[in-house]
UniProtKB/TrEMBL annotation, chains A, B:
Cofactor: binding comment: Binds 1 zinc ion per subunit.
Keyword Repressor: yes
Localization of this protein: Cytoplasm
GO cellular component, one term: cytoplasm
The keyword Transcription regulation is annotated on this UniProt entry: yes
GO molecular function, one term: zinc ion binding
Protein name, as recorded: Transcriptional repressor
GO biological process, one term: regulation of secondary metabolite biosynthetic process
Coiled coil: none
Alphabetically ordered keywords of this record: Cytoplasm, DNA-binding, Iron, Metal-binding, Repressor, Transcription, Transcription regulation, Zinc
DNA sequence: CCCTTTCCTTGAATAGTTCAAGATTGGGTT
DNA sequence: AACCCAATCTTGAACTATTCAAGGAAAGGG
């Protein structure tokens, strides 16, 4: 758990103005890993009830662009955000309930995978999504 | 390029009724790998002008459910479909223009990757998306 | 050839996200 | 401390991809 002062430094480090909506969104993403936009709006409004949804969308975009948060969006899901950035970790997604958990990099380097034939593309990231069933959904009811 | 008779056999093999919309969608997906729904609707209507968009959505869902086509949806993209199924290959996506190309499996087995810590999930598939720039977009203009 | 079930058409609804215009505010400068 | 301007936020509407729902059409087994 980080303090508001930490978030302020992170924003200044990214050359973003320090505003209350931004501090609140940053805190919400840190507190609720893999939360979708709606959940983040809810968390932010617990502290700043008047924040518009558009502001949250704008802030999330700014934070994503500067790399302070990472946006993930498995097929069939809405956009989700997390604060764990820079370590190229991956995700497991439950096919049944959609819950997401972190998985460390399969090999240990960034990027941790190399395409066997890159089709002439210059590749800068390998994103892995593991699909399966979470413990709760695979448990006999 | 497969014939209409092949597509008919594929549908029957999947226990789906053989209809003209389904044959046309199947042909369109085979002819236009990684096409989005709108492109597929366009391709289908070149042959069957009266097909509704809802029919195409329904058919794509049926084909995806039975495994005759595969649905892919990189972050920020609409749903796309391809007919190459069952070999667990992966994709490179251009950050600039969104174009997609196939990449063979990084290791060669299905699933070709194993999560280092699976968080208790039972994993049945590892999906890899390589992000980068396609040859056209990275060329000096 | 008929009947049942599946499929397609038509039309409307929905959710998530973005666009646009104007008001507010952060923070560098005077 | 007051000023200024670009960046940010509010308000409200628009948009797109997709899904829902009800009724008509047609596939294919009997």
């Amino acid at each position: 758990m980080r303090s508001s002062a930490d978030f302020e430094l992170m924003l200044r480090g990214a050359e973003l103005r320090v505003t209350r909506p931004r501090l609140a969104v940053l805190a919400a993403v840190h507190d609720h890993p893999h939360a979708d936009t709606d959940s983040i709006i809810g968390a932010v409004r617990r502290e700043l009830p008047e924040v518009s949804h558009q502001a949250v969308y704008d802030v999330l975009r700014a934070l994503t662009t500067t790399g302070l948060v990472r946006r993930i969006q498995p097929s069939g899901s809405v956009a989700r955000y997390e604060a764990r950035v820079g370590d190229n970790h991956h995700h497991v997604v439950c096919r049944s309930c959609g819950s997401i958990a972190d998985v460390d990099c399969a090999v240990g380097h960034v990027p941790c995978l190399t395409a066997s034939n890159d089709q002439g593309f210059s590749i800068d990231e390998a994103e892995v999504v593991y699909w399966g069933m979470c413990p709760a959904c695979s448990a006999p009811s």
